[in-house]
Specification:
By secondary structure, the protein is an alpha/beta fold. 45% of the residues lie in helices and 16% in strands. Bound molecules: uracil.
């Protein structure tokens, strides 16, 4: 068997055997398969796809490339929640403490932001002192003690995905359903949770640009979950406009805190409550309406926020020390009308440009900068009324570029739905 035979086979639209996928993935990890050969194989997969069997084999081979967390020392069912990535997506920061305040165990490994989408770990590290690197022993103890721990992914977890993803990122081979599904699910399964909840974002600010591809990705991930007897539930949610109002690390933490104290923006709240009520249904078999009432109670009686405080303290963070830049610019509308769209991708790119995101994993980010929307899709804006506040440090902004993100028209278009589907 040679890597060239394997590339040719996939180029000719044939199904690869498990041994052939193993040869390519393990060879790439040990250096016997070169970057240019792996990129060629990845491109053949992007163009010609993989069957469900090949995708499950690829997932399994990636899982076995590194450590698998053993969370059996945690009492009770453990939930992991993942998002395929969006702009302003601070759902985990709210959902985690909210569920933990109800006794549900959240043991979660999160990623850093790359490109125009943010990452939970960067947001948490914007809280001074917050330690996202716990030993496995401490991670397990913390979940047993306070029901929640949020940490970064270790280097030993699915190293094959780490190396292949870095290559995909620079070779135009990210957009492939089998590659995305196996990449996400290998990390989720290796992280050891019992129930996997995935928020599949769809829209111009997301990896999945249309509902059909989002549904196909969700079905594939649910199928992989079944192969491992891990109940996997996917919620498909809209990412045409940023989620909530804040985009940028510290600003998003502040908005998450507001939401945990019962004062969150309605779209963020809708996604959080929907995801949480599905999880409570899966863990406790509680009817949806009952679960929703319980969740609102936890937000309004201070219990959810108290759990967030406990989490921050347990991981060494200082909750009263969340810094936000005091160099603030108010961007006003140059016309009046209804806001029919706010371009999430473009807003995410502007946030990255002013320092809130990174181009490569080595880039340093500025936690204190970002944008806060004063208007959302469906709102009416007067001429000269504020559309957005921009928090800057040492980079400049282009006002016209920011204004271009807003589609303002005389007629109000129908509001797009936020929750588009549930696949399980
Ligand atoms: N997120 C991942 O972890 N992997 C992908 O391939 C895409 C998004």
């Amino acid at each position: 068997m040679t890597i060239i035979d394997i590339i040719n086979k996939k180029r000719n639209r044939k199904q690869l055997t498990r041994e052939e996928i193993e040869f390519a993935v393990n060879g790439y990890l040990d250096g016997s398969v070169k970057d240019y050969q792996m990129s060629s194989l990845l491109m053949a997969i992007v163009l010609n796809g993989m069957t469900a069997r090949e995708t499950i084999d690829l997932t399994d081979i990636m899982i076995k490339s590194g450590d698998v967390l053993d969370l059996s020392k945690i009492d009770g069912l453990i939930v992991d929640k993942h998002s395929t990535g969006g702009v302003g997506d601070k759902v985990t920061l709210v959902l985690g403490p909210l569920l933990a305040s109800l006794g549900i165990k959240i043991a979660k490994m999160s990623g850093r932001g790359l490109g125009h989408t943010g990452g939970t770990i960067d947001k948490l590290e914007s809280i001074e002192g917050f330690n996202t690197k716990l030993t496995e022993k401490k991670f397990i103890k913390q979940v047993n003690d306070i029901n929640i721990a949020l940490v970064g992914q270790t280097a030993d977890l699915v190293p094959a995905d780490k190396k292949i993803y870095a290559l995909r990122d620079v070779t135009g081979t990210v957009e492939s359903l089998p590659l995305i599904a196996s990449s996400i699910m290998s990390k989720k399964i290796a992280s050891g949770a019992d129930i996997i909840m995935i928020d599949v974002k769809v829209g111009n600010g997301a990896l999945m640009k249309n509902i059909d591809s989002a549904k196909a990705l969700a079905k594939l991930m649910v199928r992989i979950g079944k192969a491992y007897r891990k109940p996997t539930i996917c919620l498909i949610t809209n990412m045409e406009e940023p989620l909530g109002n804040a985009v940028g690390n510290s600003l998003e933490v502040k908005e998450a805190i507001d939401t945990l104290q019962g004062n969150g923006p309605s779209d963020l709240l809708e996604v959080v409550i929907t995801l949480c009520s599905i999880i409570i249904g899966a863990v406790n078999k509680m009817p949806n309406n009952e679960a929703k009432n319980l969740l609102f109670k936890q937000l309004n009686n201070g219990e959810a926020y108290k759990k967030f405080e406990e989490l921050v303290k347990a991981q060494g963070g200082k909750i009263n020390n969340i810094k936000i830049s005091d160099k603030v610019f108010s961007i006003k509308s140059d016309r009046e009308g209804y806001i029919n769209n706010i371009d999430a991708l473009h807003i995410g790119e502007i946030a990255k440009k002013i320092g809130a995101g990174r181009n490569t994993l080595e880039d340093k980010i500025d936690y204190e900068v970002g944008l806060v929307l004063s208007k959302k899709v469906g709102d009416y804006v007067e001429k000269e009324e504020e559309l957005v506040k921009v928090y800057l440090k040492d980079k400049d902004i282009s006002i016209s570029e920011i204004l271009e993100c807003f589609t303002i028209e005389e007629e109000l278009k129908s509001n797009p739905k936020l929750i588009l589907d549930i696949i399980k």
